[in-house]
Every structure is written in C-alpha cells, then in structure tokens.
Specification:
Elements: H1 2-14, H2 19-31, H3 35-48, H4 54-69
C-alpha cells in the first residue's frame, strides 16, 4: 500500500482536483482501516463535483458500507 499512497499523493500534488486520485486514495485508506482520512477525500470530491460524479458516488458507497460493517 505504501506505493499506492505515494503515487496518489504525487498525483494530488500535481493536480489537487484529480477526482480519480481522491477516489483511489480514499478507498486505499479504507483498506487499511483509516476511515477518517477516506472521509477527507470524500469531502474533497463532494466539493469538486457540482453534480454527483462517479468518483464521489463510488467512494461514498464504499465509505457507507464500511460504516455499516465496522462502526467506529
């Protein structure tokens, strides 16, 4: 996962509005159990997408499933 995080952070450094990178890193954070960081990227996508975009919708569904399966 270290490479995944490093590549996503690099993509977001180059383009802070890269929706795919926000979705991917959000899902990666969920895989390692860091829901709070995933929700930061979900919030960023919410601000970028004037209407619900695919990246926002998919990450939101994944975060919601994580909330149901592993409430904090």
């Amino acid at each position: 996962m270290d490479d995944s995080f490093r590549h996503c952070e690099r993509a977001l450094t180059l383009d802070p509005d890269h929706r795919g990178a926000h979705e991917y890193i959000g899902e990666a954070y969920l895989q390692v159990g860091n829901r709070a960081s995933a929700e930061v990227h979900l919030k960023a996508l919410e601000g970028m997408c004037r209407v619900p975009c695919d990246e926002y919708r998919e990450l939101k569904e994944t975060v919601q499933a994580c909330r149901r399966d592993r409430p904090q």
